[in-house]
Design brief:
With 477 residues, the protein is mostly beta strands. The chain has two helices and 42 strands.
Length: 477
């Protein structure tokens, strides 16, 4: 009897213990939420799938639990009811999953990263004492800019140049400096960095004063040999050598020439030393590519419009080099196609500009652009461009203001003849082009219309020996 009583007392003690009570009462209750992700970051504009697991006090998984998802900063990342997180802006964000039955929550920290950062600037050089405003940009995985991102700015040589917290660079002494812009995500996460090398040039210690000018009003100056010529409609423009050793831009209308500008004159506060290329349109507007007097390379593109009586206007005025202009760059509307550096631009008559193509681009019809060889504006609102591919062959395109369309390439079959080379075509009517095209043993003037070639002239026929480079066409002829 004593043994039976002892067992009953022992059993009662066991049933009353807190552990057994927890098992009986809390076995199905949520004690913890474990939030997990395949990585601790997501790119802006991309998604990351998160999961949440509910467990009881013993660590056992509880099935069938419904989670409510939220982020600590909805402007940095958003999340749907299934735990799919989408990165919006760079930075750290806490993701919280809450059991809707018990209110128990769990959290994880995820970092939203940009796809890349870059530094842009209008120039890659400045003089000692001058300032240059730099702009840093972060972009998402689709290449779109991310606004409002903070950057930390540094220079590797503060004795050469200093940079402010807002990206304003100040030249201190002559030299070369590397500017760094780091995405500010906290001390442990300044890993997204862009670099830009800037040349700081010594400030010129002289001033220019005009002593002698080659202005056409100076008595005794006469024109000599034309060096560059451009023609359109009833106008012919040329660069003419002067008897005093200078140069002048001369425009002829109906055989009546006039000097519209001469080297040695000031333009935009600097002296024009020489002209490189001239282009005229059928309205009598003239564009010229000039060199300016300065200690370093200094170039301008100047526009002389008939409406302004050929008053010079510097439309791209920079202390830089690398411009390119062609004799047929100026269209009849006053738009101008010109190259700066590795990019071909079109400047609209209202002064706005847009990029046509850059070296390294992959437009349809060419593997990769390795060079921009030639270009011209047509009377029908297009810009014709000769691009060189990675293999060195030329491909010819028409740009309609929105996109490049391939016309043909060296290597096309012209009748029974495989071509090996070609020249920049002219557009004689809308969508109709003629070009000089040929091979090692043949040359021709051929017409391309609606994707079909026809021969205008070819060597060996009609007593033709060899078709030379000079050709042009208008109004279908």
């Amino acid at each position: 009897m004593k043994r039976i009583l002892s067992f009953s007392v022992w059993l009662a003690w066991i049933l009353a213990s807190p552990l057994v009570l927890a098992q009986r009462v809390g076995h199905g209750a949520t004690s913890n939420i474990d939030v997990r992700a395949p990585s601790n970051f997501v790119l802006a504009a991309r998604t990351l799938q998160l999961t949440a697991r509910a467990t009881n006090v013993f660590g056992a998984t509880l099935r069938g639990k419904t989670m409510a998802w939220q982020t600590s900063d909805p402007t940095r990342a958003s999340i749907d009811n299934g735990g799919l997180l989408r990165g919006l802006m760079p930075g750290a964000v806490n993701v919280i999953a809450t059991d809707t039955d018990s209110g128990v929550a769990g959290a994880i920290t995820v970092y939203v990263y940009p796809a890349g950062v870059s530094i842009s600037t209008g120039s890659v050089s400045l003089q000692v004492g001058d300032t240059l405003t730099l702009t840093a940009r972060a972009q998402d995985a689709d290449g779109n800019p991310l606004p409002g991102v903070s950057f930390a700015w540094f220079t590797d040589l503060t004795a050469v140049a200093r940079v402010s917290a807002s990206g304003v660079l100040t030249g201190v002494s002559e030299g070369r400096v590397t500017v760094t812009a780091s995405l500010d995500m906290g001390a442990a996460f300044e890993r997204f960095t862009a670099f830009k090398t800037i040349e700081v040039n010594r400030r010129a210690d002289f001033r220019l004063k005009t002593l002698l000018s080659s202005d056409s009003t100076v008595t005794g100056v006469t024109t000599l040999v034309p060096t560059h010529v451009s023609a359109a409609g009833n106008f012919v423009a040329g660069l003419i050598g002067l008897s005093n050793g200078g140069q002048a831009v001369v425009l002829s209308q109906g055989g009546r020439p006039q000097t519209i500008f001469a080297a040695g004159n000031a333009l935009a506060g600097r002296i024009v030393t020489r002209f490189e290329v001239v282009s005229v349109n059928a309205q009598g507007d003239v564009a010229a590519f000039t060199d300016m007097q300065g200690e370093w390379c200094d170039q301008q593109i100047v526009l002389f419009t008939a409406a302004s009586k050929w008053t010079p206007q510097a439309i791209d005025n920079s202390a830089r080099c690398g411009y390119g202009l062609q004799p047929s760059s100026l269209d009849k509307q006053g738009g101008l196609a010109y190259r700066y550096g590795s990019t071909l631009y079109y400047r609209k008559p209202d002064g706005t500009q847009q990029a046509i193509v850059s070296i390294g681009d992959h437009p349809s019809g060419i593997d990769r652009v390795s060079n921009i060889n030639n270009w011209s504006a047509t009377p029908f609102g297009k810009v014709l461009v000769e691009l060189q591919g990675a293999a060195g062959f030329s491909v010819y395109f028409a740009w309609d203001g929105a996109q490049l369309k391939k016309l043909f390439g060296a290597g096309d079959q012209i009748g029974a003849n495989p071509s090996q080379w070609a020249r920049l075509p002219v557009e004689v009517s809308p969508g109709e082009y003629i070009t000089r095209i040929g091979g090692s043993y043949w040359s021709s003037i051929s017409r391309l219309k609606d994707g079909t070639w026809s021969t205008v002239a070819i060597n060996g026929k009609d007593n033709l020996g060899w078709v030379q480079d000079g050709f042009d066409g208008a109004d279908g002829f």
